[in-house]
Amino acid sequence: MAATPYGEVPIAAAANGWQVSRVADTATSRKHPASFVVLTKTVERTATRATGGFGSYPSVQGMRSGKGSVVIGFDTEFVSDGTFDAERGWIGESEQVTRRIVSYQFAAIDPTDSDRLRLAVVLPAIYPGPRGPRVARLSFGKALELAITALGLHEHPLAEGWTAKGVPRQAVVDAAGKWHREWWFRQKGEHAHALPITLVAHFQNADLTAFVDPVKMHNTWDASYPTGRKRRRAKAGYSGYRNRRLDDREPDILRAVISASAGMVSPKPVEWVLPGENKRWARPVVISIRDTMAQSGASKLSELGDAVGVAKLDVPGDWIARMDEYLVAHPVDFLDYASNDAVIALEYVSQMYGEDQEVALTLPTAAARAVRGIIASELAERHAGKPLVEAGPKINFNLVFGGLEKVTKKTEQTVSFENQLAYYRQRELQPLDGAAATWIHACALSFRGGYNMSAELGLFEQTTHDLDLQSCYPTASSTIWDVDYLHPDGVILRTVNNVELSLDDFAEGGPLTPFVGFVSFEFPESVAFPCLPVPVEGSMVYPRTSGGARGVWSMAPEVWLALKLGARVMCQIGHFGRTLRLEDGTPSRLLRRPYKTLLDDRAQAKKEFGKKSFQQTVLKLMANSPYGKLAQGVMGQRGWDAWAQERDEVGGSAITSPWHASMTTSLPRAVLLATLNELHDLGYSTPSCTTDGFITDAELAVVDGLDLYGLSNLWREAREALTGSRDMWEEKHTQTDLLNVTTRANFSRQPGGVLAHGGYKLPEGIEEDSQADRDHMYELMVSRDGALPVTMKVFPSMEELTRVHNRLDFSPIVVHKQQTIEFDRKRRPVPDGMTANMVMVGDEVFEVAHVQTVPWNSPEEVELGRSVDRGLKRWDDELGEPVWDRSPVRRTRDQWLDYFDRLQVLLDEDGSVAEAERLDRIAKGIVIAQRQGIINIPWLASDRPLAERLDAFEKFGLPRPKERFWSHARSKTERQIDIDFDAIEPYVEDMLNVDPFASAAPVEVGEGAS
């Protein structure tokens, strides 16, 4: 069947119960309005709404705000295009056409019958333009208007004072005839109110960008008619504390959104007055943009559908790439497929937050809301029955949990504006006092991410186990103590300056002692895994010493463990905090109850739906979300602000706390590093470690039996309080063919083995975690001889989609690049003990070196070690492309030996190491020659004490030989050392001419030889 031209829509679907009508949209032109076909239908709900769903779990219910909103599921269908049309700018599209919109679809719960759904599909139609027939996109304002009218939302209980025509404008006109639009949005009373609407889709980056671009349209008009430019405001509109209002002349919804948790959402609701049936009527709405990507950990739409009992429909054959043709050939099937995606988005958030309820910005935001609510309830319980004057501050969440107070006109500033942290400044908060400011800022400087590294590279044919800490961050957060910001003397108990720390300083609580400090350190050479993180080139490394740096900011758990490992830790400045204690004297742990609620729900989901169920996965995300919210804004993260058209600080969350965030990551790092050190001392291998677990050849029973310098019992007590079980570890994978290349690049061909791709994008046709995936990655890494070619789709960024100038439409770009997956050198590879395995791939045999690592001595060494393989490419004029001068791969023994040689050169870049080695060889050569009778230096053969004779070498500019070397200088081993007679000659001449024990001073080295 030949495809109908784009825009010639069929209406055969009316035979299947769809009601058909036509509408016009004047957003692009009043003289030539765009035309659309609107199809509506009412259907029975098929979603699972039983009380046993995960929407009924206490933690999920705690995430709900209790505010009402009309939720509209939204989706679009489009096809790719690659044509150029100079006329598209007039109707708000790019001249370089990348896609054509086939349909817009909306779904809402029937306002009069919650067992039914109302559906609406809007199809762009051909209409007469000024230069012939054309098809335009729908404007966002018209889309809202159609959603309200086609779905009959004026019948909704939240539509106070609404009729099918809208609400009367006269109701917001005062006695003097002045119009007050704000009455619809703010003032309470008997008059009509704005309708709260939540527009939710799965991946709004694709759907919300499918409307008319008013900025592009106006830019086209201005460029064509420079003398008749329309008056435009520089700002997108008005932004208040709670809501925003877009510029009426250029209402651009993409200016009101941000990127959050993989979704496109609006941080503030947008006030919008839509036209009513005529000039006497209006449809005021407060619209919130939500994205199910941000509510599900970026899960697939099909998984969301399965979770709520609405299966995603399939499109047969290759129709999915030709949806415009599918609409023509199978209109009924097309409409069912298209509207079903909108239904899934609607039903998913309805089960999560309740029907006709406000949807949180993101799932982590909702989890933070639940955590804050549970903590607030606990604070109220602690001080129940006490006078309000006494209990008031102690039940204030911001004061007790974060040491922050609300900034008002009367508030005295505790931190200068330029020194304020964005996480609290953007929430109009500030530290309670000077001590709180000092403590908060020091904790923020100490924040680090998870521990990630590889300690041993190559093939492991023995059985290895991938072990994880169970509920790592929830357990850590519920273990740490709170600090007392409200103490009359401030949160800081004492400050130390320029002191060497000892374990006695941590007598109060060991690793939980409230402490943050700026420290320098040196670990014994016997420590396999130093535990104090140092930022180097954007990542955390763990060197043996702090090197030339003055120090780093660190938290108590790792400083305490460093002391346990025998490190010398000097503290330039450090603060010991006051512990917040309950009336019985026990430390306060405000995060324990919220996490227990979340973990109880996750355990119930595992039992009810299965260990690998989608519900369990979502609840796992819920349980892990508060950690991210504790740390939000602590490091001053920046993101694209579409409203201001600039990059700005992200700001904090409702529960951001540098103290809790820094301790939450520090404690697991300490636990993992304690584990690695104890396993190393027992002779076990630990090839890789990532955030909450590691790979080892020790069995689970061995790891379970470790004391971890006392950390094991501390962690297990928290686990018992949270779950009733003292289990600490769980085994995720086991394999006997582990190939470890670098951090997060571990491969096994065995079905139950580990598989971490190291950021590599699989070729099309290979399903992730399939046997084909395992075989492909294993063979690729074993046989690699250069950078790996990668083909991947790259989507426009949030900035590219929402910027005013040169805005891009949503369309993926296919990128071809070379990717290097090699050891990240967070530890120093060493040649000692290097072996190799031979692995067969097809008919070829490849060598895979097995390499050990040790800690770098200093951060400076890390930089040198990482610089070895930089600048390996050069431009090849003949090929017309960059080529590798030498392979960046470190896979074989020869390749690693090349690395070791190059590293040695860099470590000795100033020649000091080589010169020291040269002089050492000369000194030893003189000793061997003297002891074996080749030369005879009188004062070396004298009866003076040997120590004095050896000390005299330094007077000739040579290092002092050791007594042991002198004693064995006649042995066979020393005889095998080649003596460079040319090198020792000038020094021997000097030693013959000058007696260091005589009164005369020795001459300069080399003068005697001249």
From TrEMBL:
Protein name (database record): DNA-directed DNA polymerase
InterPro entries in alphabetical order: DNA/RNA_pol_sf
Keyword field: DNA-directed DNA polymerase, Nucleotidyltransferase, Transferase
GO MF entry, a single one: DNA-directed DNA polymerase activity
